[in-house]
Amino acid sequence: MSAEQNLYISLSDDFLVPKNNDIGATLRNDGENNCTYLCGNSLGLMSKSSSTLVQEELHAWSTRAVTGHFAHPQDRPWTKCCDEVNTLLAELIGANEIEVACMGTLTNNLHLLMDSFYKPTATRFKILCEAHAFPSDQYAFTSQALAHGLDPATAILELSPREGEYTLREEDILETIEKEGNSIALVLFSGIQYYTGQWFPMQSITKKAQDKGCICGWDLAHAVGNVPLSLHDWGVDFAAFCTYKYVNSGPGGIAGLFIHEKWHEIEYPKFAGWWGHELSTRFEMPPKFSPIKGAQGFQQSNPSALAVGALLGSLRVFKKAGMMEPLRERSLQLTGALEKLLKRSKYYVPSSDLAQKGTKPGFTIITPEDASQRGAQLSLLFLPVGSGTMQLVYDYLSKNGVIGDEREPDVIRLAPAPLYNTLKDCEHAAEVLDKVLDHIS
């Protein structure tokens, strides 16, 4: 079987794909067929194993009640329900298990980590980030600066792409750290930029930041389960991530954090909670907090067994697939195939020709062309900018059973997730896109 033929076959049949009827694809006459789902960068599909494990947890709750914390029908007592998850998450992000904790939500974890690692002084107080970071990150940066009595306008240093460009150049990021490093307390970028899909050069940024005496952390919301990560070997100080996108844990699924083991003897959680206390004495309810060594000491409250079960189900699929190395290879092939299909369209406008673009509908791709600088996402900018073309295209795609993600005012993100998407999905999306632009034109 050729590589192209293999891309028509889903890597796993473990996922449940919505039907065209269920997502309101009113222009389709095959309502009972699966839709073309290219939105794993926003919310991953539900795996059959996740559904099974959640049902098992509901059964355990109904038959064991409180005793399920210690005696579980599937031998997953709720006091230890994160054990297997932490092991698999560590493998997924390139970490030691002691460096990982399955807990909380993304922004909550980000606040906890920033509270421990953002320690501004009179001369070193800035937070370096990308301009137009995900809004929740921007809110967190602003509130952390204010909590330290700082003016966000001077404390937050936002780095924008060069004029006429959509993504940041590595040399510009490193040059900024070199120039401003003595005033920067914390460098905190997205692993993958949510809007453009750019995968930042994490290793070189981390090294440069630390060489200049800065702490370097990462928001990995769009990177975890999407691209290979080696957080321990790269020396990343800390990271926070959600799991409901490429890791498929379900809407609002439980999140995670990473703290490099070099900090384990130095940093202790300032906001302690009982689930971060050593398990051996946790239920003795001692008055003095004795944290679990490492990242898991940052846990506060007991996690939802239902949320953990949903995450564990998907992580077991990752494990079955061989984790990120084979998935990355398939991802490169799928995203590359989608890119080629889109560039064949008569409506595609190369970025070099944007200045000459007239008023006819079209699109360009603002995600980096270099596959090593992106994950499983292509962001399409629809033209003319501000014309409403994107909204028309998005509505037509949805009614034809192609589910992507709209970003006002002009961008649609398409993400062929390697766990469940196929080349057929990419072909269908490109075909429907051409049809709608024919209609608009």
Automatic annotation (TrEMBL):
One of its GO terms (biological process) is L-tryptophan catabolic process to kynurenine. It is an enzyme of class 3 (hydrolase). Pyridoxal 5'-phosphate binds at L106, T107, F134, P135, S136, D137, S190, D219, H222, Y244, W274, N302. This is Kynureninase. Residues 161-264 form the Aminotransferase class V domain. One of its GO terms (molecular function) is kynureninase activity. The modification N6-(pyridoxal phosphate)lysine is found at K245. Keywords: Cytoplasm, Hydrolase, Pyridine nucleotide biosynthesis, Pyridoxal phosphate. Coiled coil: none annotated. Belongs to the kynureninase family. Catalyzes the cleavage of L-kynurenine (L-Kyn) and L-3-hydroxykynurenine (L-3OHKyn) into anthranilic acid (AA) and 3-hydroxyanthranilic acid (3-OHAA), respectively. Pathway: Cofactor biosynthesis; NAD(+) biosynthesis; quinolinate from L-kynurenine: step 2/3; Amino-acid degradation; L-kynurenine degradation; L-alanine and anthranilate from L-kynurenine: step 1/1. InterPro entries: Aminotrans_V_dom (IPR000192), Kynureninase (IPR010111), PyrdxlP-dep_Trfase (IPR015424), PyrdxlP-dep_Trfase_major (IPR015421), PyrdxlP-dep_Trfase_small (IPR015422). One of its GO terms (cellular component) is cytoplasm. Homodimer. Its EC number is 3.7.1.3. Pfam families: Aminotran_5, KYNU_C. It comes from the Eukaryota. It catalyses: 3-hydroxy-L-kynurenine + H2O = 3-hydroxyanthranilate + L-alanine + H(+); L-kynurenine + H2O = anthranilate + L-alanine + H(+). It is found in: Cytoplasm. Its cofactor is pyridoxal 5'-phosphate.
